[in-house]
Specification:
Strands 1-2-6-3-7-8-9-12-11-10 form a 10-stranded mixed β-sheet, with helices on both faces. Strands 4-5 form a two-stranded antiparallel sheet. Helix 3 crosses helix 4 and helix 6 runs antiparallel to helix 8. The longest helix has 25 residues. Strand 1 and strand 2 form a beta hairpin. It has 14 helices and 12 strands. Helix content is 36%, strand content 17%. It is an alpha/beta fold. Among the domains are: 27 residues; 274 residues, Rossmann fold (3-Layer(aba) Sandwich).
């Protein structure tokens, strides 16, 4: 009998125990390992890391926010961290932002295809499904979906980032930018404001700037610019334009609609506007003559349904089909709680829609005073939050702050074509249009949106020549 056999077993067991202890230590120091995506179903081979999973923001009610994180394609350790938020309120940053706009992949049938103009070419991109009840984000207590408002959302988003840094401590001191579109005109400034307040107690967030695409910043200005946009693009008659600006403007209609008491005059005016603009024109891109994908429904709250109005959803919504596959949900470490299917915009969230009327342009002003650079950009074919209102708000803000124009209104280029127009005030506040772009600019003009994004991150002027 080999007398060394028990000793060999002890050595082998010791080795196994050491491996287990090392693995536990590694996992403890790098909890993000649990969230690492090995590969998404149908995904082409890539050289960057992806992560997704949950961050609990309230242990008592088991309220958890879902995120998807795509590290930069090249030199992720040298690139900034960018948080992207979609709007609604109640629509998914995963389905809209990541898989339809500026993420690394877009679903196509059973596969994913590369987005050659993905924003993770320039940054480490973090997409957050917020608030609770959106997409894969959930609560075990259904009362968490009731009475949700901007304050609750901003607080949850702040807690999310704090705890996300526990998973990814290597990003704690990284340059951080917050970007988003549509109702993110509320989400982004409010989160940024909380971050600055938090930093007074504990320096955690290295916030370097915010960028807002076709954002809701001031209810009346943003919504009432719709009439001029419709009229100037030939969508309504002179008579209807007069009615739309004199008897019942759009902000009054939306205000009445969400209070459940639309006046007869507003009902009549909006009926006329609806008939002339036609339900066959996409309000989020008035030049688009293809079907309206549910990808664009993040703005449905901003354009309440009118009598006789129908939403023309594409027969095959690639993103919805892809994210409802069990193998995809397993790869994403995602789960459906309280709902049967993942949806672009939440069917269970009861958001306080009158928060629309609370201006966030005043918060943007505070951020600029605190030295945070701000970019407001507009897809110039969007009639939901038209460029005219955004431009007016930015110009007014510059005057209030006493900022002089440092880059006069001019064209900028993407390749050999005009990418849009831009104006910069005091090297801290910028306005830009993206030529030919819809409400979801990176979806409709990916190349031009990437040029704008790169310039924003670098603090550089947009190209003025080709």
């Amino acid at each position: 009998m080999d007398s060394s056999l028990p000793w060999k077993k002890v050595v082998a067991l010791t080795g196994i125990l050491i491996q287990i202890l090392c693995l536990c230590t590694l996992v403890e120091s790098s909890p993000s390992l649990f969230d690492r995506i090995i590969s998404l179903p149908g995904q082409p081979q890539v050289g960057f890391e992806q992560y997704s999973g949950y961050v609990t923001v309230d242990e008592k009610k088991q309220r958890a926010l879902f995120y998807y994180f795509a590290e930069a394609e090249i030199d992720p350790t040298l690139k900034p961290l960018v948080l992207w938020l979609n709007g609604g309120p109640g629509c998914s940053s995963l389905g809209v932002g990541a898989f339809s706009e500026n993420g690394p992949f877009r679903p196509s049938g059973e596969k994913l295809v590369r987005n050659e103009h993905s924003w993770n070419r320039e940054a480490n991109m973090l997409y957050l499904e917020t608030p609770i009840g959106v997409g894969f984000s959930y609560s075990s207590d259904t009362s968490s979906y009731e009475g949700v408002d901007d304050k609750i959302t901003a607080r949850d988003n702040l807690v999310f980032l704090q705890r996300w840094f526990d998973k990814f401590p290597q990003y704690r001191n990284r340059s951080l930018y917050i970007t988003g579109e549509s109702y993110a005109g509320h989400y982004v400034p409010q989160l940024a404001e909380l971050m600055l307040l938090f930093n007074k107690k504990e320096k955690l967030f290295n916030l370097k700037g915010i960028a807002l695409g076709n954002p809701v910043l001031e209810f009346a200005t943003d919504f009432n610019s719709r009439a001029e946009f419709f009229w100037s693009h030939g969508l309504i008659s002179d008579t209807t334009y007069t009615m739309f600006t004199s008897f019942c403007n759009y902000s009054r209609y939306v205000s009445e609609y969400y209070r459940g008491s639309v006046s007869p005059i507003c009902s009549r005016v909006m009926g006329q506007v609806s008939r002339e603009t036609s339900r066959f024109v996409d309000k989020y891109d008035v030049t688009l003559d293809v079907c309206i994908s549910s990808v664009l429904s993040q703005s449905k709250v901003l354009a309440p349904k009118q009598d006789g109005d129908t939403i023309d959803v594409c027969v095959e919504d690639e993103t919805v089909n892809y994210l409802n596959r069990k193998d995809v949900q397993m790869a994403l470490h995602a789960q459906l709680v309280g709902v049967r299917r993942w949806a672009v915009c939440s069917n269970i969230l009861d958001y306080e829609l009158l928060n629309l009327e609370i201006p966030t342009i005043t918060i943007v002003q505070k951020l600029i005073k605190a030295g945070i650079p701000v970019l407001v950009y507009s897809g110039d074919q969007d009639s939901v939050i038209p460029l005219t209102g955004s431009r007016k708000l930015v110009n007014g803000l510059a005057k209030e702050l006493g900022l002089r124009t440092t880059v006069p209104y001019r064209v900028w280029f993407e390749g050999q074509q005009v990418g849009g127009w831009t104006q910069v005030y005091g090297d801290i506040l910028s306005f830009a249009t993206i030529r030919g772009a819809s409400h979801e600019a990176p979806f409709s003009q990916p190349e031009r949106s990437l040029v704008l994004f790169k310039a924003f991150l670098g603090g550089l002027p947009l190209p003025e020549a080709f």
